[in-house]
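Handout, section 3.2

Students often ask what a structure token actually looks like in practice. Rather than define it abstractly, here is a full record for DUF427 domain-containing protein. The first block is the sequence as you would receive it.
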Amino acid sequence: MERSVKIPGPDHPITVEPNPSRVVVRAGGRVVADTTKALTLREASYPPVQYIPLADVEPSALESTDSRTYCPYKGDASYFSLVTADGTIADAVWTYDKPYDAVGTIAGHVAFYPQHVELADS
């Protein structure tokens, strides 16, 4: 299957910058990630997304799934379910294992769907 690869530009800008704040992610009242090394990805008109280093995520909070999606700007995404005291939330976390060069710095990071977590930066 032929996939298009798109380069960010004026019609679809993407930036990735270090977040100078501490970012704490909670799910079900439990801290599942705590970092001072988050990256903020801004893409076109979408809300900014915090990418958290996998090393700063509680390993027991993540379960790998078979879900996959494709973004022509970022590459192939894989997913994790989020394990909370209230149960498991399927595909609540995603990562780009080998992102395209334009967003290469997000490799080794994960992002959380905001409707499933409380995300605070300070």
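Discussion prompt for tutorial groups: The mean pLDDT is 95. How would you have guessed this from the sequence alone?
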